[in-house]
Amino acid sequence: MNGRAERSIAGLPGLSEHERAWENLALTWITLHRAREIELGKVGLTVPQAAILDLLKTSTEPLTPMKLARRLNRKPHTVSALVSRMETEGLVRTTRDMGRRNWVRVSLTKKGEQAWSRQAEERTARGATACLSKKELDQLNTICRKLRTRGSELIRQMQLNPYGDFFLQ
Amino acid sequence: MNGRAERSIAGLPGLSEHERAWENLALTWITLHRAREIELGKVGLTVPQAAILDLLKTSTEPLTPMKLARRLNRKPHTVSALVSRMETEGLVRTTRDMGRRNWVRVSLTKKGEQAWSRQAEERTARGATACLSKKELDQLNTICRKLRTRGSELIRQMQLNPYGDFFLQ
After folding, report:
1. Which helix (H) or strand (E) is A139 found in, with range?
2. What is the per-residue pLDDT across A95-127, written as a single tens digit (0 to 9) for each?
């Protein structure tokens, strides 16, 4: 499957080097994500569920669905639906704070704690960058920081001016 | 949001450098993907729809839902559902090949062609790597190739031995 994917990137006609890099990055993330998905499947979790468990386990402050959505850079309604399914499965509980209207705190149940521990032991896919040299790992972190800054800038500009042109260079 | 995300990566306790790199890469991809999502929203498309249109536009061979799934590294049933929604929207058509049972060819409609052209003009987010130097772009492509090879290896191993341990190092 990888060989076919490589040929399909190399063979894409008319793409600029940046569009090619985009396809390259997209396919890389899809492949790693799929590996992590299979790895987590062994302990009965999905990737977004594991991310929520991780945030709840490591946060030093109480988390609401809105805060979870911000930490995950996801839409609030996506995260609310996810939290609600996880509550049905007994992984998290939500409690209303009577002092603040619409303020819902999400926390781990005992079953959620156990699921977190099991996923934490499955770290081969999540540690995929072990195939890189120390220098490449540093390069990757630097490049990701730049791309993230650029991506956040674009999001801000498009949200300010959602239908206008935004040719920056 | 980006500043908060940066702090949340830096502040994650107990993560190895590889787990930190994973979070870094995940958040980068989510940010770029969100930017592309907003960009495509301007022409009424989603990211997976644009990927399907692109494959149909550039393929030199007839494509079935199964072939599309392989090219996109996605599950066949996910792609079938996507194709079916795109057919309802008039972006693609599916035709059965009477000579081969269950063989469905997916092709672009005129509306799909027009949508492809419109999305091809929206390339600011998709060209986000323009913020990198030539050297960084080369580094990114090299690193992605290594990570993809590693990811594909892990997927193959886990699929061969879905419930066993696979500690490779």
Report:
1. helix A134-160
2. 987 677 677 899 999 999 999 999 989 889 999
- Domain A46-126 fold: Arc Repressor Mutant, subunit A (1.10.10)
Q: What are the domain boundaries of chain A?
A: 1-41, 46-126, 129-161
Instruction: Give the nearest partner residue to A125 out of B41, B154, B159, using CB atoms.
Output: B154
Give the ipTM of the model, two decimals please.
0.77
- CA-CA distance, B129 to B32, in Å (whole number)? 10
Rounded Cα distance, B144 and A85, in Å: 34
Cα–Cα distances in angstroms (integers) from residue B126 to residues A159, B55, B119, in the given order: 17, 16, 10
pLDDT band at B159 (very low <50, low <70, confident <90, very high): confident
pLDDT of A96 reads 86
What's B2-131's CATH class? mainly alpha
Concatenating the DSSP letter of every residue in chain B gives -HHHHHHHHHT-TT--HHHHHHHHHHHHHHHHHHHHHHHHHTTT--HHHHHHHHHHHH-SS-B-HHHHHHHHT--HHHHHHHHHHHHHTTSEEEEE-TTSTT-EEEEE-HHHHHHHHHHHH--TTTTGGGGS-HHHHHHHHHHHHHHHHHHHHHHHHHHHSTTS-----
A125 contacts in chain B (CB < 8 Å): 151, 154
The SS3 call for residue A45 is coil
Q: Are A79 and A68 in contact (CB under 8 A)?
A: yes
In this predicted model, what pLDDT tens digit does every residue of A14-64 receive, in sequence order? 678 998 999 899 989 989 999 999 999 999 999 999 999 999 998 889 999
pTM of the model: 0.78
pLDDT range class, residue B133, cuts 50, 70, 90 = very high
User: In whole angstroms, what separates CA B139 from the centre of its chain?
Assistant: 21
Query: Length of chain B, please?
Result: 169
Asked if the Cβ–Cβ distance from A132 to B146 is below 8 Å, we say yes
Q: Mutate one of B140, B157, B168 to test the A interface: name it (highest A CB count within 10 A).
A: B140
